[in-house]
Amino acid sequence: MYDFTGRRALVTGGSRGIGAAVVRQLLDGGADVLAVARTTAYAPPQGARFATTDLRTTEGVRALADTADRELGGVDVIVHAAGGAQANESGSTLGLTDGDWQDVLDLNLLAAVRLDALLAPGMRDRGVGAIVHVSTAALVPPVPPFAHYQAAKAGLESYSRSLAAELAPAGVRVNAVGPGRTATPGGEATRQRWAGTADATGSADVPPLGRDGLPDDVAGAVVYLASDLASWITGAYLSVDGGEYPRG
Ligand SMILES: NC(=O)c1ccc[n+]([C@@H]2O[C@H](COP(=O)([O-])OP(=O)(O)OC[C@H]3O[C@@H](n4cnc5c(N)ncnc54)[C@H](OP(=O)(O)O)[C@@H]3O)[C@@H](O)[C@H]2O)c1
């Protein structure tokens, strides 16, 4: 559907779930894709390059940027899809430890900040590029044990808008996508942890559009925003959630 011929793309979280669907769709469009995960537990879609690193550390992000330079010779598209929250045994906001906060902020927010800091200047200098950050649609209604996750994603969206404003004059676009409940390994694990916790989202069992999302539903929005069809869209946030979490 999209033409990414000659484009070099880096997709974090590209070994499974939403990230893997993004990788597949970018490959279908003709992109040269480097998929990134922490482990080799899952293999990325066939045809993609693959790198493992722990994105929660500055060293891990720096090593990844070096790999991207070496393997791709530059990056035209960045998709930060790696994310999620570790189990929080306390079940409360005040029970989150310093380590819980650091871990979740590192993966969901700072990994994107650090990766963009290393790779976006090349995009700016070439005057071309698209960045998509994967947030969450479930951002506003409070879920106390996941305060760190919601805060990290809120920060990611705010940061995306600032970066979009800064890079727009250079022709580089930055957007965010917020998935609702999507059938992925990480999504299922998180929902099991949410079950029985103080969930104040008031969300229904089934999203208004009648089903949970599939990885390709979310990837379609991500890849659209990364494509030239979205060439006049920057600083935007797009919910892909079956209508579950309207934002006023
Ligand atoms: N699924 C949902 O319902 C849902 C809802 C709202 C928002 N989201 C967001 O959508 C994005 C993708 O979610 P998903 O459900 O597709 O995730 P997933 O199934 O848990 O997959 C996560 C991917 O990120 C990688 N990853 C995790 N920690 C990493 C680390 N420290 N360093 C490098 N890579 C790491 C994983 O690699 P390994 O396999 O090696 O760990 C895997 O490739 C996330 O940002 C998530 O917050 C998802």
Structure at a glance:
The protein is α/β, with parallel strands linked by helices and 248 residues long. It has helices at 17-28, 58-72, 98-126, 147-167, 185-194, 215-226; strands at residues 8-12, 32-37, 49-52, 77-80, 129-134, 172-179, 237-240.
Overview of the structural elements:
Pfam families: adh_short_C2. Belongs to the short-chain dehydrogenases/reductases (SDR) family. InterPro entries: NAD(P)-bd_dom_sf, SDR_fam. The mean pLDDT is 94. The chain has helices at residues 17-28, 58-72, 98-126, 147-167, 185-194, 215-226, and strands at 8-12, 32-37, 49-52, 77-80, 129-134, 172-179, 237-240. Strand 5, helix 4 and strand 6 (172-179) form a beta-alpha-beta unit. The radius of gyration is 17 Å and the shape is globular. The protein has a 7-stranded parallel beta sheet, with helices on both faces. Helix 1 packs across helix 6 (215-226). It is α/β, with parallel strands linked by helices. It contains 6 helices and 7 strands; from the N terminus they run E-H-E-E-H-E-H-E-H-E-H-H-E. The protein has a single domain, classed as Rossmann fold (3-Layer(aba) Sandwich). Bound molecules: NADP nicotinamide-adenine-dinucleotide phosphate. NADP nicotinamide-adenine-dinucleotide phosphate (NAP) is lined by residues 12-13, 15-19, 37-39, 41-42, 54-56, 81-84, 107, 134, 136, 179, 181-182, 184-187.
